[in-house]
Amino acid sequence: MQVDPRGQRFAAALTTLVLATALATGNPWVLGFQALVFAVAVVMGVRRSPYGLLFAAVVRPGLGPPAESEDARPPRFAQGVGLAFAALGLVGYLAGPEWLGIAATALALFAAFLNAAFGYCAGCETYLLGRRLLVSVRTA
Fold first, then answer.
1. For the chain, how far is it from start to end, CA to CA, in angstroms?
2. Taking the model in full, what pTM does it have?
3. Could you read off the pLDDT of 45-82 as tens digits, one per residue?
4. What single-letter DSSP state applies at residue 2?
C-alpha cells in the first residue's frame, strides 16, 4: 500500500504539537492520547489513523494529488517506534522515575519534529536499514 508523504509530515506536525504539550505540562493524559494515536496507526495503518483521516478529509482535498507516493510500511514501523517511546514515557510519568517519562517523550518529540520540519523520518530510515541488513544476512 502506498501513502501520500505530505500526510506523513502533517501527522508528524500534529504529533510534534501533542508531544510538546505533553513534555511542557508533564501530563500523562496528553501523552496517553498520542500513544493511542500511535497504536491506531500501527494496528489500522497510517492512512486510517486519526491524523491520517484528518489529513484525507481536511487537508488533502485542497492540495490535490501527490506528485509521488511512498510505501506505507516504513511510516507504520515508525509509528510503532513512537508507540514504544510513548509507552516508556507513560511508565516514567505514572510509575517513575519521572526523568524516564521526560526523556522518552523528548526523544519521540525530537523524531516527530525532524519529520515535520525536514521530512526526515528516523523510524522510516531505521526500518529501511533493518531491511537492508536482513537482505545482506540472507545473501551471505
1. 29
2. 0.94
3. 999 999 999 999 999 999 989 999 999 999 999 999 99
4. E
